User: Fold these one by one.
Assistant:
Number 1:
Amino acid sequence: MSISSSIIHMVIILVVSALLIITGLKKQPGIGILGAIMIIVLFLWACGYPLSRIGFARPQNWFFTILMGLGLGLIIQLLSVMLIEPLTEKITHSKHDHSIIDAVKGNWKVFLQWMLMVWILVAVIEEGIYRGYLMTEMKNLLGLGFFALIINLLYSSVVFGLSHGYQGSSGILSTGIVGVILGMIFILSDFNLWLAIFTHGFIDTIGIGLIAIGGDEYLKKQFWLKRS
């Protein structure tokens, strides 16, 4: 990649990152996601790149990938509910703002609507942007060295966390931590997106399901009660 090409790619990365962060902090994440999609699609089209460039390549085994995604999603979500979220709330002295999905509580119709959104839009599109585009392009610029991967992982996770600013300071921190985990999954999957997509989808499915039945608060109380 030439110096001029590298500069152009870096500028596009920074523009996409800034758009996601600003709209997330202003509690207008949908605008940022839509804008990022448009820029990324235009970038791929202008360069003649296929979607496989940003990780949308067929996995070796769909069944194994989905099953692994379910297992990882369950572990990560339970870890988040019982450990990551309570600790980040202690650090930031603020509660997570889950008001965007409050309507799912006791309402299975709203829950099903969220499931459609999670599996059709959120998991695929967010992974395509934060891991697929940002991490792949950073990898193409910085390489695959240990420190390059650390910078790549931290950068994409910071952008991921800040763009969830509508969840409050605790949400930014906990989402950033989950972003690190998803980024590691992406790297260990040889920059193939599908395991990260299914893991993300099951994280959100289990998380929203717990909120719908009040299970998140129950698990937090049970976990910390035994340690008090």
Number 2:
Amino acid sequence: MVEKRLHLFQLVSPALPVGGFSYSEGLEWLVQHGRLGDAATLRSWLEAELRRGCLTVEAATLPGLMALLERTRSADPLEAEAALQAVVERDGWLLAQREAPELRAQQRQMGGSLGGLLADLGWPLPAGAPPLAWPAAWAWAGVCLQLDPGELVEAFLYSWVAGQISAAVRLVPLGPTQAQGLQLALAPLVAQRAQELAVTDPASLWTGGVGASLAQLGHAELYSRLFRS
């Protein structure tokens, strides 16, 4: 049990070489256009995404993806092939939720990097599997590391919040102490949403992140940029 918890810590570590530090997911556009400029507005933004953003659909999909990816290891080749096809379809469905080309590129890049890392560590994707985007690659990491699906959902949400706060420290007048305070303040909501999403059918969810989508689409048109999305 202790070892699995340490594996979970490794997966959410900022040292994980997947390039997440280079993306802001629209925060940079919001800051440059005066829509987000302090800790209070950042908190409101993150809370809205945790409640209604596309992130919630991705998180809710993780347990099902883990189950399908586990079935790709079946000794029955027909069952394994059917499970892999279902993974590929769900992977494409999740990518289609992201309107901005930069966000789709981010999902592919980070997923490909995580898949490559796992392969180098001795856990290549199932035979015949194409590179997976970020959520499906995260689910594959959960299978390889034998993690609990509910804990994986919570770690997925926590990692996203931490990445957004890290980007905000470089964009907003936000000091490291404020940033850590915000991470602590959001912990109850992260835990609550993880518990809910772990048992929610992702097809039953809807997203209200219109503002996030517009910010992500607008990022490509910024004159100067620190981040890739």
Number 3:
Amino acid sequence: MQEIHRSSFTSRLLLASLAGLGSFVAIVFWPAGTIGWTAGWLHVALVTTGMWTSFIYLRRANPAVIEHRLRTHRGTKYWDWIWFALFTPAFLAIYTVAGLDAVRFEWSTMSLWLWPLGLVLWLSGYALLTWAMGVNPFFEKTVRIQAERGHRVIDTGPYRFVRHPGYLGFFGWILSAPLFLGSWWAFLPALLSIACVVIRTALEDRTLHRELGGYQEYASRVRYRLIPGVW
């Protein structure tokens, strides 16, 4: 039975990965109107490599989080579904605007010297996000109290410094995309996406204060939600 479960999980993961990669390629290149976009392919390659590197790490450090993130679960807060409906188009607009700007219409130009800055933001942000998932078995896609799994406060790893390190790491992906793709205009949906993440952080933090035992004491020790010394 365990072998069957492992085979089913591997199949679902492979299908999800292929579907996600295909969708991401379409999202990046359709607005550009061409597949001959070097910056676009470099970004796709970097994201794909990062995801598989993260997967290899999580298979050793916290395999349960991979399976739980493949699907949604009962108990997700209603406001989180609304949030997803607002955040998703804002995030996808980064790539729509970047393709239209950098390739199709060339509304703005960006120096190639900013590419290394994008790489630093991506690597540091994705490393932080992966680290957060590695130490937190309750790092699911949606916000809910996972009572059936013995949901508890996690205060190790990056959670020693901020209460929501995964979101801070995700900022690296969001802000690096316009730099990788060479579009100043793409910063508009990128900043909107970050505002959405900040709102979700506040709503999730409020939920955890109210419903997760021990969280108020943890919040009194780790004062900042996202950025030490700021908020």
Number 4:
Amino acid sequence: MIDELKNRLQAEVERLNHEINFVLPKEIERARAHGDLRENSEYKAALERQQFVTSRLSHLRLRLSKLSSVQESDIPRDRVGFGSRVTVQDVDTKQRETYALTLGEFIEGDDDGHETPVSMASPLGKALLGAKVGQSVTTALPMGQRRLKVVELETVHDLAGKRP
């Protein structure tokens, strides 16, 4: 799973590098050819895109460097962590929900719609991190506190054995 995320991040870095080194300079040059730069919306749009791409590249490189220091062996096998699929039961309503903890950039649901992706940086993700089966966690919501009990857990190690 970690290698898959590294590959996805690296692919986006390569795409953005191509854009910033080849595509945007051509767009900026084409916009400059139109004349007065103070009132040239194409020029301003290209410069804004260049700033965004530069910022995104910086963010992705930082994320890649942090991800490179993470080893699957460092992820706990008995607690909720990166890549875990966790089923929780609301203490008050007894309703069950399944969440998949992931990085914020790559939140995607599963094909059958049985789990909801949750960023580890979200309030729910932070509350679940480190929890064990049987443990209750509390997360703050705009409408009040929500208490959840962890009833099932599949860590990244368990899920790696299930992949084709």
